[in-house]
Amino acid sequence: MNIFNKPINEIIKSRHSVRTYENNELPKDVLNKVKTYIDEINNSKGIFGNKIRINLIEKNDKNKEIKLGTYGVIKGANYYLTAAYDKSDNKGLYDIGYLLEKVVLYCTDLGLGTVWLGGTFNKSKFAEAINLKDNESLSIVCPFGIEADKKTLVAKIFGVNTNKRKDFTSLFFKDNFDTTLSYKESGEYGEVLENIRLAPSALNKQPWRIVKEDKNLHIYSDGKIDINKVDIGIALCHLELTASEKGLNGKFEILKDKVSDKFEYVISWIDENN
């Protein structure tokens, strides 16, 4: 079932990092829609079989004793999404990216601004606000709300490289890593790969590398740190949502023969229209 009102291409292209918000309450119907969708996501599993715990924190009287710090990076935000996972499985980071990005895009579809924060927030305070359990790790916070017309200086500085992306041919390959793949050569998967290219990532590193073999996509990581697993999960979300909307039926599957000496193999998208 499609939960978005607009085409996924439009939503992905309109999503951008927002660090300055209007210091206002959101309409109750909008907030309730977000809460309902979060409940749906919390009752589902990610690609690697993990459940995550997304909480919506309202900066109201209930939390006024907890100073939710973002080190001056975020201004005016009254609402935050947090994502915690069971730290016994490191693949939970992939599922955080995959599942939380669905909520982020849902917020975008509602006309709300968002931004992924992987480090510039006070973890202990947010952990206190959501009663973080001993077996959980809190890796991501996403402020959301109505974007302010005027950006702060800090937001301008942080946003300098926000929209920069690597070239298509430096991320995507045909059959092996020795042959680059162009948008035109991607055929019906061109839009799918382009929407992966547009996915947000920590410091815009875009750690994903994808080899297209016939109609199948093999996803690899050039990431060096744990947060890059979240980035890959976001890319996988964009892949699945775009493919689904285009009627390109497929499934994620881990194959045994795709190990590379250049990049870390993660998972494959197996096209079921072959």
The tally of helices reads 8
Mean pLDDT: 91
CATH class of the largest domain equals Alpha Beta
Largest sheet: 5 strands, mixed
Strand arrangement within the widest β-sheet reads: 5-6-7-9-8
CATH A-level architecture of the largest domain: 3-Layer(aba) Sandwich
Structural class: alpha+beta
User: Could you say which overall geometry the principal axes of the C-alpha atoms support?
Assistant: globular
pLDDT under 50 segments (min length 5)? none
First-last Cα distance:
23 Å
β-strand amount: 15-25%
Number of domains: 2
Compute the number of strand runs. Answer: 9
The proportion of residues forming helix, as a percent range, comes to 25-40%
Radius of gyration: 18 Å
Protein described:
By secondary structure, the protein is of the alpha+beta class. It has 2 domains: 8-158, NADH Oxidase (3-Layer(aba) Sandwich), CATH 3.40.109; 168-271, putative nitroreductase (tm1586), domain 2 (NADH Oxidase, 3-Layer(aba) Sandwich). 31% of the residues lie in helices and 20% in strands. It is built from 8 helices and 9 strands. It has helices at residues 8-14, 28-42, 92-109, 123-129, 153-158, 168-171, 190-197, 227-245; strands spanning 52-58, 79-86, 113-114, 136-145, 172-174, 208-213, 216-221, 250-253, 264-271. A 5-stranded mixed sheet has the order 5-6-7-9-8. A 4-stranded antiparallel sheet has the order 1-2-4-3. Helix 2 (28-42) runs antiparallel to helix 3 and helix 3 (92-109) crosses helix 8 (227-245). The chain is globular and about 55 Å long.
